[in-house]
Structure formats: structure tokens, C-alpha cells
Fold this protein.
Amino acid sequence: MENIKTIETREDAIKLLNTALEHEWAVSFEYTVHAYSMPKGKFWYTDPVMKNRTDARAQTIQIGIDEMYHALQLGIIITQMGGTPSFKTDEAVRYPRIIDNLKRDKMTEDMVTSLYQSAKFKEGAFPKIQNMVLNISYDEVRHSDQFVSMMEAIKKEGAEEALCFQSSPENADKEEVQLLHEITRLENELMHRYLRYVMLFSEHQDLSQRLFKNSIDHMRHWDKNSGLLIKMNDVIQIENAEKDAKGVERSRSPMPDVYPGNNRLSALETLLPAEETLIARYEKLLALVPDGEIKDQLNIHLALNREHLFTQEWLLKNARKIKGIE
Ligand SMILES: [Fe+2]
Ligand SMILES: [Fe+2]
Ligand SMILES: [Fe+2]
């Protein structure tokens, strides 16, 4: 990550914000994947600020969500300044040992704190942006301290060698597991895509808030599906990842970096086929899964995606009724 030292012009400010956005976008994904690869309610630490016992997995997901909000804030301000948000992502990595992922996450936090805190703003140039950058940087300081506490607790328990969940080799031939991987990837992509449109339409609360609600639903599905994968003796995949001899997975393109649509109509048009594809995949999967807890959960996701499709169809029809809407 390139530190941007001096902020004098609008271009400098947009460049700083876009560098930060690329980072926030990537880590929101990476931290959540690290969390989804850990057992629930197994590793507890005492949170340095809240002073209570906290589940490391749950808190890592919460940190991932904080990063999504950082990305959203940055994207909205970039759009308002007339810039174009960039979604190029950094490399996503997953180590076999839980503690190594937390170590990487802590280093990432320190790196981004330095990006934010080393930016020197020309006095009076962009006071609100300077304030925002400082505010975000102290969220990162807090995250770094949380990751340190998690690692200390794991070491104290003698659990340094604890491993992430693994994909069971026999799942490669199981259609239902492979379908759930595909669905989980689509849920993640749609969550991020809706967020991208929230940035695009941030000047108008009606559209942006409706799209934000759908983004949150996809986040919840992504979260629940990751838990279902573990019940199926699997674990969330990192797209386009290669595994080395030591079992370290690395991907240079863990998420799409371009999202279709650049105005109200073209963006809304792309969401219908995306929701339809997702619904069709859920229907196919549900036909393969026996009655029980997993099926019940998948049915909840299917139902909400059907509701999204209804909403999106009307958002598009209504936009088409109004001449000259951008
Ligand atoms: Fe962040
Ligand atoms: Fe952070
Ligand atoms: Fe949906």
C-alpha cells in the first residue's frame, strides 16, 4: 500500500480515499473469511475496551463489518467529490493456523493506521475529510488492539497450533456442497455489489437505503451459509486461490473489481438477472437437501431473495416510468 503524504488538491484527496477504499473493501472480505474459518464460541479473549469476555470469531466478523462501513463512507465521499470509487482488491490470504490469520490481520491494521495517520493535509484544505480519516484511523487502532488480545488469549491457552476448518476431500463430488459454495460466492458478490450501488446513489436516500437493506440481507446469508458449510464438513472458499505446499491459500482476485451499471437504470437492470440466478441456485440446492435445520435455513434465504426480486422489479419499473431520470 502506497502512503500518500501530502493532500493539497481534490485529486490528492480522491487518491488517498481510493487507496483506502481498495484496502477497506479487501479486508472486509478477508477478515470475515478468517472468522468463518474458525470455530464459534471456542476462543475467548478479554476485550481491552469493553472489558468483557468476547468470542474471537464473533468479534472478527464485527471488525469485518466495521471495514465495510469504512468502505461505504469512503465510497460515498469519493462519489460526492465527483470521483469514481475503485474496487481493486489487495491479495487475500488464509493460513492453516488460526493464529497466523490473526497475526496478518493485526499487521494489516497497523499498515492502514499508518496510511491514515501519515497523510498530511494542507491546513484548511479538506477539514471534514481530514477529520473522517482521523476518526477511521482510531477504529483501526482499536481493531489492532483487539487482534493482539485475541492472539495473547490463544497463546495463553496453548492453542497456537489450532487449525482453521478444512474442506473434506469427499465434498469435491458432492453436488449440494459445490452448489452451496457457488451460492455463498454469489451472496458475497451481491452484498458488495449492492454496497457499490449505495455509493453510486448516495445523493438520494430513497434508493440508497433500499439497496442498503438488500446488501445487509446478503451479508446475513453469506454469514449463515458459511456456518452451513462447516456443518457439511467444509469451509468458505476464497475465489481464485492457490494453495502452496504449506497449505497457505492466496488469491489476487478474491472478489470482482468491476461492478456493472453506472446510472440508475443500468444498475437496476443488472440486479434482476443476478437475483434470478441466485434464486434458481437455491431452488436447485433445496431439492437436494434433506428436511432439517440446513434446509430450513436455506429456505429463509430463498424467501428473502424472492422478496428482493419483487422489490428490484418495481424499482426498475418505477424508474422507467419517469422520463429523464439518471
Ligand atoms: Fe477500516
Ligand atoms: Fe480495521
Ligand atoms: Fe437478493
Q: What stands out?
A: Residues 127-156 form the longest helix (30 residues).
